Amino acid sequence: MDKLDFPESPLQQIRAPELDTAGVSLQIKRDDLLHPTIQGNKWRKLKYNLKAMALENKRSLITFSGPFSNHLYATAMACKQFKIQGHAVIRGPELDLNNPTIRLARACGMVLHAVSRKEYRQRNEPDYLAQIAQQFPDAFVIPEGGSNQFALAGCKELAQSLPDSDYVCCAVGSGGTLAGMLDGLAPERQLLGVAVLKGAQYLHDEVLRLNPQAATRANWQLLCDHHDGGYGKFSAPLWQFCLRMRREHALPLEPIYTGKLMFALWQLIEQGYFSHGSRIIAIHSGGLQGLDGLRYRGLI
């Protein structure tokens, strides 16, 4: 087996009176259990980036992230496991060395380069990326969040691993997971993306940019009214819902991505959004390390 091919993650059946009343079934694709240290959509996105890096004979990688990022965590873990020298440009201007995500990345051997917010905003600009390529000539460049053409192949595999259903639902931050999964789903299966940030309508265009075939597919939809205040923000009811799902269903959630997805899904089910008999699969995209950052900041 290729060292980058992990066994598939399991499915968890959720049983609850609300589901019985609505006449729907709900399964969770537990991609948080995909691997002991590198999980979820961040690994799905990294997998084919690392294969492309090997094909280009690059010995290191460089990426971009916020200081509490799931992408930083997963990339650091992957660099440690596969003995890759990793660099990350961190939105700064300074590193908080007590931040648990930063501590983990440094422990894995990542070299972290803190930059000002002004410089960080240039992370997708061609001129800035050309400077990065000149500064790190042997490094393979992976964008913030990992969403690029290589990432789509890994997310397509995720979709292809799923059993038959009527709906597949995922959280949407950058659009990469949804764009890639769309290629792996049959046209009669509906793909619902729950945007986790405010004013996320622009993500529709981002999905089309990442996957132009999305323009010809009518089986996907972006739901933009379940951000619960904006990216990184969450309400007390959402956090209580996360705690309830862990308590009643042994389903761990964090309130930035997976919690918003499940909270939205639960509300839609109770509102009768899904027709009787619908089979729903929700993607648990990992990111549970984010709970440490929320605790560190005193937010939970």
UniProtKB/TrEMBL annotation:
<dbReference type="InterPro" id="IPR036052">
    <property type="entry name" value="TrpB-like_PALP_sf"/>
</dbReference>
<protein>
    <submittedName>
        <fullName>1-aminocyclopropane-1-carboxylate deaminase</fullName>
    </submittedName>
</protein>
<feature type="domain" description="Tryptophan synthase beta chain-like PALP">
    <location>
        <begin position="14"/>
        <end position="286"/>
    </location>
</feature>
<comment type="similarity">
    <text>Belongs to the ACC deaminase/D-cysteine desulfhydrase family.</text>
</comment>
<dbReference type="GO" id="GO:0019148">
    <property type="term" value="F:D-cysteine desulfhydrase activity"/>
</dbReference>
<feature type="active site" description="Nucleophile">
    <location>
        <position position="69"/>
    </location>
</feature>
<dbReference type="Pfam" id="PF00291">
    <property type="entry name" value="PALP"/>
</dbReference>
<feature type="modified residue" description="N6-(pyridoxal phosphate)lysine">
    <location>
        <position position="42"/>
    </location>
</feature>
<dbReference type="InterPro" id="IPR001926">
    <property type="entry name" value="TrpB-like_PALP"/>
</dbReference>
<dbReference type="InterPro" id="IPR027278">
    <property type="entry name" value="ACCD_DCysDesulf"/>
</dbReference>
<keyword id="KW-0663">Pyridoxal phosphate</keyword>
